[in-house]
């Protein structure tokens, strides 16, 4: 059975999708962009953007009763691979080195609201 996960601590969906869906113990989190859920405004600059995206993902995980330790897969979309090193250091700071998820990072030409980063995740209940 599918359960929709929704929290006010992450940005509301800006289209016909859910923040996340739980199915058979697997949580599929939609791509998060750097919108501050408290203000509804975008944060700017790859450092602030990456922190905001990770906070948004953490809020969805928390709503589902999980943490970053439950994440098994991450997909990162960057507008520029020149931002990779900065993003990577910030991304890693939110994770437990003993339980890094699988991941790919790809450069794309454009993202929603013209942001510099978007990250989606898949997590699994213990």
TrEMBL record:
Coiled coil: none
Superkingdom of the source species: Bacteria
A Pfam family per the record: Ribonuc_L-PSP
InterPro entries, sorted: RidA (IPR006056), RutC-like_sf (IPR035959), YjgF/YER057c/UK114 (IPR006175)
Family: Belongs to the RutC family.
Name used for this protein in its record: RidA family protein
Originating organism: Chryseobacterium ginsengisoli
């Amino acid at each position: 059975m599918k359960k929709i996960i929704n929290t006010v601590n992450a940005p509301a969906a800006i289209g016909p999708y859910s923040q996340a869906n739980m199915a058979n113990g697997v949580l599929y989190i939609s791509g998060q962009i750097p919108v501050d859920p408290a203000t509804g405004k975008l944060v700017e600059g790859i450092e602030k953007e990456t922190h905001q995206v990770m906070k948004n993902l953490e809020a969805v995980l928390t709503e589902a009763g999980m943490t970053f330790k439950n994440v098994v897969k991450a997909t990162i979309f960057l507008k520029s691979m020149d931002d990779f090193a900065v993003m990577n250091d910030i991304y890693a700071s939110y994770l437990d080195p003993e339980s890094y998820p699988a991941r790919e990072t790809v450069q794309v030409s454009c993202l929603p609201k013209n942001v510099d980063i978007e990250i989606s995740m898949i997590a699994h209940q213990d």
